[in-house]
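Supplementary Methods, section 5.1.

A reviewer requested that the exact input to the structure prediction be made available. We therefore reproduce it here, unchanged from the version used in the analyses.
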Amino acid sequence: MRTRNSCFSWPVALMLVGLLAGCGGGHHGGKGKPADDVLVAPTVTLVSPADLSTNNVVGGVIVATFSTAMDPLTVNSLTFTVQQGVAPQQGVMPVPGSVVLVGNTATFTPTPGLLFDTQYVATITTGASDLAGTGLESFYVWSFTTEEEVVVVDDTPPTVILVSPLDLATLVPIDTTVVATFSEEMAPLTLTDLSFTVTEEEGPPVAGMVVPVGDTATFTPTIALLPGTQYSATITTAATDLAGNALVNEYVWSFTTEAQEEEPGNMLPVVLGELEHFVIMGGYAVTNIPTSLIVGDLGISPSAESLITGFGQTDATGYATSPQVTGFIYAADMAAPTPAMLTLAKGDLTIAYEDAKGRTPVPTGDFLNPGGGNLGGLNLVPGLYKFTGDAIATTDFALTGGANDVWIFQIASSLVVSNGVQLTLAGGASPKNVFWQVGTQATLGTTVSFQGTLMAEASITMQTGATLVGRVLAFSGTIALDQNIITIPE
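The structure derived from this sequence is encoded token-by-token as follows.
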């Protein structure tokens, strides 16, 4: 900034300077220009961070504001410096960075950022000058201290927040990969084929490779999974996050692969899972007119034991017994772990029912509505049979095939077997490989002799004296018995 003065108005001391400069007609530089301008040196008026300030962010910049506009050629990384330490000693731990001047404000940007909990000294040298070429009268020096580093201790265990396939998923492609997503990034070395396993239900572990990336881990089977098969996936507590925190508990989920699209006469049996040991599974109620003989376990879910009637059962912890049942009776209101086991069994019933219902290819020819919907008098080879409406059997009929052959009957509506009808298995055929998927309700008339697993959406009624080697499994309705014999298949 310049201050214009007159020889006649200045104090005496300054008038002497004016006289020496040629006031009143003297010449400056031999050109006859009046020398009435006095140059004032620029000053630093404001700095950031402030002098002696503390707790400054490490990602910040250092700013100096001057009293006047400065010459950008003189305000640079040579005249505006920052160093780590307690005194402005040139060349001692300098901080690299760039300087940008805009008007009367200069900004120093450290590259990289400053350190935590460290004292720094910033300096503006006398080489910095204003637009008239006047430099600072002396170095401007100030100091500041950065913030302390906050170290966050991670003691929160990770959790599994998402899996693929989803728990209890069905119709999963046999070439699927199994993926677990965690609540945070995981330590890669802790996710291996030992801590992340996939196992065939009641079978050996599946060979495969585990690839962890960030917060996910992917298990890729070495070969395709088996069709129509239930698998369990497990993440063990050996899996940890980057801080070494392990899962609190093992994480286990299950899924079932899609069934193969088989030829009607070449099929795999329906997988029953937890239902294997049940001969009866009801949804709403199980009623009985004594005396019946039931060989295998009897269950009801989600209803309570009070809706199991006619068996004269004796209660124990988590189950009941009856002289009419060679096995145990379970209900959803019994002690743990019975409720969880029944929930799993009903889930497996859903899987089995949908598997049977969804088998392909869609039957044609003799496999579509055989006998025009009436099974009476037929002798059926192994295969997939479909009824687009009701299915009835008014006279005896037979299934002929080997011990490993499979029959699946898809019935859109009801199944009614007339009184006295006998279903015969021939050629070594096994009732464990015969499955009846019934869209509404099934009725076996008096003294009927029937074979296979009956899975009905609603109710199943066995009239007086009817017998069955197989299972009666109802989703939502009542299973009504009347002096029947039901034996679980071997």
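The first helix runs from residue 12 to 20. These observations are discussed further in the main text.
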